[in-house]
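ugh ok fine here u go
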Amino acid sequence: MARKTKADALKTRQHLIDVAITLFAKKGVSTTTLADIADAAGMTRGAIYWHFDSKISLFNEIWNIQPCISQEIRRKLKPKFQDDDLQLLREVTIETLKVISTDRRQHELLQILYHSCEFTGEMYSEREIRERYWFNRERVKKILRNCISKGQIPVNTNIELTITLIQGYFSGIIKNWLMQPENLNLYEQAPDVVDNLLVMLKKSS
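structure:
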């Protein structure tokens, strides 16, 4: 039998991660075992332990390899809105919501983050995951400061409070959409969701 190559091992590792994401989203992290993941992946438990020594290491690796979708979108759109931070924020947020609404993997990851996981021990925390992949406070703080300097939002805007309100706004939208998607067409209504937030920003005091 031919010896497995590094490429084969990486492919197997990715397959295990893909299966784990789906099971974690459907069954919950705490009730899914490594044996469940191995079975669903069509592998032995020994095979999964060769790649991951625990469920926590597998859980953390899921997030280690995820790109920040909002940052990727921002890099693509920034040249079009170089001097308009508020419009760039609007367009990036709308496109991020649209990706979330149509990409199965993003849906599963958010389901894990908001509904299918009890964060304990050495697992990455909900805050760490959210800051790294969907909502980074420092990045948003910089954008808001730029908006203030350009007169796009009031000069007396309380930045820290505003960021907390933005975070709560989108967390609530996403959590409710995951639970009852029939109540919100996130793809079609993404502009309305974002524009309602921008009304609040422009009236900040």
